[in-house]
Design a protein that fits this description.
Number of strands: 17
Shape: globular
Strand content: 15-25%
Distance between the termini: 92 Å
Number of helices: 13
Helix content: 25-40%
Largest sheet: 7 strands, mixed
């Protein structure tokens, strides 16, 4: 009898111990959830009342909160917060020193992040960019080339060597940099010392292709053109939705996307990079498969041609990335880079395509690029030779 009582007490003790552990786990999860939610809680800005937040479909690297009287707070992951102050108004007193003030209107932006130019073009905002970090010859966006040719936009030095005197004389109200600026932090510090706000954009860290495109909404906030951005962005989401709703959204076709560098190595995209994701969304299967996960900061890798041959020779389609070493027009030009490519299934079948040089500058049209890839994977028409962003090698 005593033995049974002891067993019962032991069982109760164990039960209570498990119950206590469960309660502690629940409390911990609750605290963690609260901490996570707190990161999305709008900032308490003295003198301003929070109204609502921008709805985002794919972008994860920024958020936008709207306050009364036209004030807007932009938060960019790991890069800080920016309070956009409407024309004729001032920043509220007592504003947190870590929040950078951007004063509207913005008519003399210094744009160094090349991927942002096309997003400004999409919202009819190129006129707000006075200073370029890229020379006229480096732009594939016609509107940017035209603006520089007409003198409406002028070259003000690259990210690590800006022309400070020119930038100051032009009354620059904002510098938009890529994360490359972190290699030269002294440049950002000096611009800020001159009273020029510096916004470091992280669209390249978006893994979903349309996450990159959605950054046009952030730039639209700066120019007060949110309605224009919503319309332009919807055009791209509609194209993606159409592909995803098609009967042949999963083709099972394998696609290799690469270029061959100056030393003969093959540069490929990593898994979960936005390019490999575009191929997957278009209904294809990206190869090589075992390239490692992209961290978006380093989304490509090099491999020797022999290794690439072993892993991708059976790919149904080849898309050659021409943005580095120039566009190709014939399969012979491709084979001149490596005769091993002649044995690839895609080459033998004539399923070899090439991107245009404008692909990586025209971030607005990534929905169109997905549509292009889907078209080549699902169309047997031999007369199909050129689409919006890719063309067939003959």
């Amino acid at each position: 009898m005593k033995k049974n009582i002891s067993i019962t007490k032991l069982q109760k003790t164990i039960f209570h111990a498990f119950l206590l552990m469960a309660m502690m786990l629940i409390c911990t999860c609750t605290v963690n959830a609260a901490d996570k939610d707190s990161t999305s809680t709008p900032a308490d800005i003295p003198g301003l009342t929070y109204d609502h937040s921008m709805e985002l479909s794919y972008a994860q690297e920024f958020s936008v909160d709207y306050y009364n009287d036209g004030y807007v707070l932009i938060t960019i992951d790991q890069e800080g917060q920016f309070l956009v102050v409407p024309e004729g108004k001032e920043a509220p007193e007592g504003l947190d020193k870590d929040i950078t003030v951007i004063q509207q209107p913005l008519n003399n932006i210094y744009l160094v992040a090349t991927s942002a130019m096309d997003l400004f073009r999409a919202i009819d905002g190129i006129d707000s960019i006075r200073l370029s970090g890229t020379k006229e010859s480096g732009w594939y966006i016609q509107e940017a080339k035209d603006a520089m040719e007409a003198g409406k936009m002028i070259y003000a030095g690259k990210y690590n060597a800006p022309d400070y005197e020119l930038i100051l004389n032009e009354g620059c109200g904002l510098a938009i940099e890529s994360t490359m600026i972190h290699h030269n932090p002294e440049v950002q510090e000096k611009l800020e010392q001159f009273g020029i706000p510096v916004m470091v954009e992280r669209s390249s860290y978006e893994s979903h292709p349309l996450g990159r495109t959605e950054w046009m909404k952030l730039y639209a906030v700066l120019l007060g053109k949110e309605d224009v951005a919503e319309k332009a962005f919807k055009e791209q989401t509609d194209k993606l939705d159409k592909v995803l709703a098609s009967d042949d959204k999963d083709t099972g076709k394998t696609v290799a996307f690469f270029y061959i560098n100056s030393v003969g190595a093959v540069n490929v995209r990593k898994n979960n990079d936005y390019v490999s994701n575009m191929i997957e969304l278009a209904g294809g299967k990206y190869v090589p498969e075992d390239t490692g996960e992209s961290d978006n900061a380093l989304s490509t890798m090099n491999m020797q041609m022999e290794e690439f041959y072993a892993k991708a020779k059976d790919a149904d389609y080849i898309i050659y990335n021409s943005t580095i070493d120039g566009e190709l027009t014939t399969i012979d030009e491709l084979l001149a880079k490596s005769n091993l490519l002649a044995d690839f299934k895609a080459v033998k079948d004539g399923n070899v395509w090439c991107t245009g040089k404008n692909l990586f500058q025209e971030t607005t049209e990534l929905g169109t690029m997905i549509e292009d890839i889907h078209t080549i994977l699902t169309t047997d028409d031999d007369s199909l030779e050129e689409l919006n962003y890719i063309h067939k090698l003959k």
